[in-house]
Amino acid sequence: MSDTTKRVLLAKPRGYCAGVDRAVVTVEKALETYGPPVYVRKEIVHNKHVVETLRERGAIFVDQTDEVPEGALVVFSAHGVSPQVHKEAEDRNLRTIDATCPLVTKVHMEARRFAKEDYDILLIGHEGHEEVEGTAGEAPDHVQLVDTAEDAARVEVRDPSKVIWLSQTTLSVDETMERVDQLKSRFPMLSDPPSDDICYATSNRQYAVKTMAPQCELVIVVGSQNSSNSKRLVEVALQAGAKASYLVDFAHQIDPAWLEGVSTVGVTSGASVPDNLVMDVLAFLAERDYLDVEEVTTANEKIAFALPRELRKDLKTG
């Protein structure tokens, strides 16, 4: 194989979505406006580099609300929190900034609405994920989690005519619809959400990978192991025809052995990944003669979300 045959297909869209950008900027602006420390419940977004960068600037990440000193400022992460967490913060007299992604908030509102109408809600998502905990916490008596095929086979509902499915926003579109089909085979009257719960950015990034993967022997996904949407991109790449796919946080984690005999490398990144980490991967590949970089564009994203109102108010007066 001559070096001239080596090329990179670079997915677009990739990287930061509007919800992640809003959450990260929220912490940055809070640090600028109020000064450190600013407490953040859980990781603001699931990316090692982003969390470490904010930690260096004075953000303190905690697992639970009771780790925040009484009266201090705490930012809730992009994944959302349950009403119970809001109450805990109120009980500790904490100043809160809610950086929940508006698309996650939409799912929370759907959960509240259908619980009020006494529906059984089947929430498709990954057990233990922060977003799932937050959504389920909106209506714990009505929500049942459906993670695996086994869950779909054994879940029970009170009234098969009053059941709806909702989903975590960062799942694989195909896997989610597989669960929905399983559930509909058991509950033919299962209602769909009023609007698509899988976030636009998750869908777009998966579609871009599906488009380029058949041409790639290897797809490198930049993202962290605890990032659901990043891990799904690896799965999507393999299902779409890539011979191999790996998830890395940083370029130096790429094993040169992965590149042996590979002429076309696909590169993409999860929705919580800053693009400089992708540029580092391209530089790593360029050093190994992958100099021809072709962007594969499947969508142009123009969505932006306003900062949380609590922060906007202080930015205005400041």
UniProtKB/TrEMBL annotation:
<feature type="binding site">
    <location>
        <position position="229"/>
    </location>
    <ligand>
        <name>isopentenyl diphosphate</name>
    </ligand>
</feature>
<keyword id="KW-0560">Oxidoreductase</keyword>
<protein>
    <recommendedName>
        <fullName>4-hydroxy-3-methylbut-2-enyl diphosphate reductase</fullName>
        <ecNumber>1.17.7.4</ecNumber>
    </recommendedName>
</protein>
<comment type="similarity">
    <text>Belongs to the IspH family.</text>
</comment>
<comment type="pathway">
    <text>Isoprenoid biosynthesis; dimethylallyl diphosphate biosynthesis; dimethylallyl diphosphate from (2E)-4-hydroxy-3-methylbutenyl diphosphate: step 1/1.</text>
</comment>
<feature type="binding site">
    <location>
        <position position="228"/>
    </location>
    <ligand>
        <name>dimethylallyl diphosphate</name>
    </ligand>
</feature>
<dbReference type="GO" id="GO:0051745">
    <property type="term" value="F:4-hydroxy-3-methylbut-2-enyl diphosphate reductase activity"/>
</dbReference>
<feature type="binding site">
    <location>
        <position position="46"/>
    </location>
    <ligand>
        <name>dimethylallyl diphosphate</name>
    </ligand>
</feature>
<feature type="binding site">
    <location>
        <position position="229"/>
    </location>
    <ligand>
        <name>(2E)-4-hydroxy-3-methylbut-2-enyl diphosphate</name>
    </ligand>
</feature>
<feature type="binding site">
    <location>
        <position position="101"/>
    </location>
    <ligand>
        <name>[4Fe-4S] cluster</name>
    </ligand>
</feature>
<feature type="binding site">
    <location>
        <position position="229"/>
    </location>
    <ligand>
        <name>dimethylallyl diphosphate</name>
    </ligand>
</feature>
<feature type="active site" description="Proton donor">
    <location>
        <position position="131"/>
    </location>
</feature>
<feature type="binding site">
    <location>
        <position position="79"/>
    </location>
    <ligand>
        <name>isopentenyl diphosphate</name>
    </ligand>
</feature>
<keyword id="KW-0414">Isoprene biosynthesis</keyword>
<feature type="binding site">
    <location>
        <position position="129"/>
    </location>
    <ligand>
        <name>isopentenyl diphosphate</name>
    </ligand>
</feature>
<dbReference type="InterPro" id="IPR003451">
    <property type="entry name" value="LytB/IspH"/>
</dbReference>
<comment type="function">
    <text>Catalyzes the conversion of 1-hydroxy-2-methyl-2-(E)-butenyl 4-diphosphate (HMBPP) into a mixture of isopentenyl diphosphate (IPP) and dimethylallyl diphosphate (DMAPP). Acts in the terminal step of the DOXP/MEP pathway for isoprenoid precursor biosynthesis.</text>
</comment>
<keyword id="KW-0479">Metal-binding</keyword>
<feature type="binding site">
    <location>
        <position position="46"/>
    </location>
    <ligand>
        <name>(2E)-4-hydroxy-3-methylbut-2-enyl diphosphate</name>
    </ligand>
</feature>
<feature type="binding site">
    <location>
        <position position="46"/>
    </location>
    <ligand>
        <name>isopentenyl diphosphate</name>
    </ligand>
</feature>
<keyword id="KW-0004">4Fe-4S</keyword>
<feature type="binding site">
    <location>
        <position position="199"/>
    </location>
    <ligand>
        <name>[4Fe-4S] cluster</name>
    </ligand>
</feature>
<feature type="binding site">
    <location>
        <position position="227"/>
    </location>
    <ligand>
        <name>(2E)-4-hydroxy-3-methylbut-2-enyl diphosphate</name>
    </ligand>
</feature>
<feature type="binding site">
    <location>
        <position position="227"/>
    </location>
    <ligand>
        <name>dimethylallyl diphosphate</name>
    </ligand>
</feature>
<keyword id="KW-0408">Iron</keyword>
<feature type="binding site">
    <location>
        <position position="228"/>
    </location>
    <ligand>
        <name>(2E)-4-hydroxy-3-methylbut-2-enyl diphosphate</name>
    </ligand>
</feature>
<feature type="binding site">
    <location>
        <position position="272"/>
    </location>
    <ligand>
        <name>(2E)-4-hydroxy-3-methylbut-2-enyl diphosphate</name>
    </ligand>
</feature>
<feature type="binding site">
    <location>
        <position position="129"/>
    </location>
    <ligand>
        <name>(2E)-4-hydroxy-3-methylbut-2-enyl diphosphate</name>
    </ligand>
</feature>
<feature type="binding site">
    <location>
        <position position="228"/>
    </location>
    <ligand>
        <name>isopentenyl diphosphate</name>
    </ligand>
</feature>
<feature type="binding site">
    <location>
        <position position="169"/>
    </location>
    <ligand>
        <name>(2E)-4-hydroxy-3-methylbut-2-enyl diphosphate</name>
    </ligand>
</feature>
<feature type="binding site">
    <location>
        <position position="79"/>
    </location>
    <ligand>
        <name>dimethylallyl diphosphate</name>
    </ligand>
</feature>
<feature type="binding site">
    <location>
        <position position="227"/>
    </location>
    <ligand>
        <name>isopentenyl diphosphate</name>
    </ligand>
</feature>
<dbReference type="Pfam" id="PF02401">
    <property type="entry name" value="LYTB"/>
</dbReference>
<feature type="binding site">
    <location>
        <position position="272"/>
    </location>
    <ligand>
        <name>dimethylallyl diphosphate</name>
    </ligand>
</feature>
<feature type="binding site">
    <location>
        <position position="129"/>
    </location>
    <ligand>
        <name>dimethylallyl diphosphate</name>
    </ligand>
</feature>
<feature type="binding site">
    <location>
        <position position="17"/>
    </location>
    <ligand>
        <name>[4Fe-4S] cluster</name>
    </ligand>
</feature>
<feature type="binding site">
    <location>
        <position position="79"/>
    </location>
    <ligand>
        <name>(2E)-4-hydroxy-3-methylbut-2-enyl diphosphate</name>
    </ligand>
</feature>
<keyword id="KW-0411">Iron-sulfur</keyword>
<comment type="pathway">
    <text>Isoprenoid biosynthesis; isopentenyl diphosphate biosynthesis via DXP pathway; isopentenyl diphosphate from 1-deoxy-D-xylulose 5-phosphate: step 6/6.</text>
</comment>
<feature type="binding site">
    <location>
        <position position="272"/>
    </location>
    <ligand>
        <name>isopentenyl diphosphate</name>
    </ligand>
</feature>
